[in-house]
C-alpha cells in the first residue's frame, strides 16, 4: 500500500479493515482493549459524572449506612455541603453501602452501591437513560433496581432498592431497608 496523507490519518478500524479483518474480528479486537464498556450491550456511553462520595464522618449524615452494622436506616441533610448536590437532577452520592441518585423527574432512588455482577464500586446514575450503569463490564439497571443488561448473564441478580423519602421541605432524605 502506497503511503499518502489519507492512509497516514486512517483510524484504527480503517487500518484493520485494510488488512482484511471482518467486522466480527474487528469487534473482538476492540474488546481486547482496555475499555470493555465498548463491548457491552448498553448503548449508553461511559458516564462523565462519577458522583461524589462524602466522608463517612460527614455531619450531614445521621444513622447507619453500612449493612455490616445492621439494617440501613439513615438521614442525609441536603443543606449540608457534602450532600447539597443531590438537589440537582442527575447527581448522585455514594454513602456507606448505598448510592443515592436524584433521578429524571426529580425523584430520589437509592440502590445498593456495589454492582450485582462482581461487586465492583463502579455503578453510576445516568440521567440521559435514567438508568444505573456499571462501567466495570457494562451491566445496567433500572431505577427499581431491575437488571436491564446483565454482564453476568441471565442469572444476574437485581440491585437492592432501598426506600427513600424526602421531607416536605425537600431538605432531608430518609433511607431505610
Ligand atoms: S461488576 Fe458491574 S458489570 Fe461487572
UniProtKB/TrEMBL annotation:
Pfam families: Rieske
Amino acid composition bias (Low complexity), ranges on this chain: 45-63
Stored InterPro entries: Rieske_2Fe-2S, Rieske_2Fe-2S_sf
Rieske domain span: 75-175
Keyword Metal-binding in annotation: yes
Keyword entries, A-Z: 2Fe-2S, Iron, Iron-sulfur, Metal-binding
Region ranges (Disordered): 43-64
Gene3D superfamilies hit by this protein: Rieske [2Fe-2S] iron-sulphur domain
Superkingdom of origin: Bacteria
Protein name, as recorded: Cytochrome b6-f complex iron-sulfur subunit
Organism: Spirosoma utsteinense
Amino acid at each position: 500500500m502506497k503511503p499518502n496523507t489519507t492512509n497516514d490519518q486512517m483510524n484504527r478500524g480503517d487500518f484493520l479493515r485494510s488488512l482484511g479483518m471482518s467486522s466480527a474480528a474487528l469487534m473482538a479486537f476492540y474488546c481486547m482493549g482496555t475499555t470493555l464498556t465498548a463491548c457491552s450491550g448498553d448503548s449508553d456511553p461511559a458516564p462523565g459524572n462519577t458522583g461524589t462520595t462524602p466522608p463517612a464522618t460527614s455531619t450531614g449524615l445521621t444513622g447507619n449506612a453500612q449493612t455490616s452494622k445492621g439494617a440501613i436506616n439513615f438521614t442525609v441533610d441536603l443543606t449540608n455541603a457534602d450532600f447539597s448536590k443531590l438537589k440537582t437532577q442527575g447527581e448522585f452520592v455514594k454513602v456507606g453501602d448505598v448510592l443515592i441518585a436524584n433521578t429524571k423527574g426529580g425523584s430520589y432512588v437509592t440502590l445498593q452501591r456495589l454492582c450485582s455482577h462482581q461487586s465492583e464500586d463502579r455503578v453510576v446514575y445516568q440521567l440521559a437513560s435514567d438508568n444505573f450503569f456499571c462501567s466495570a463490564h457494562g451491566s445496567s439497571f433500572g431505577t427499581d433496581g431491575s437488571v436491564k443488561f446483565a454482564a453476568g448473564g441471565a442469572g444476574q441478580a437485581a440491585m437492592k432498592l432501598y426506600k427513600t423519602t424526602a421531607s416536605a421541605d425537600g431538605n432531608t432524605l430518609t433511607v431505610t431497608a
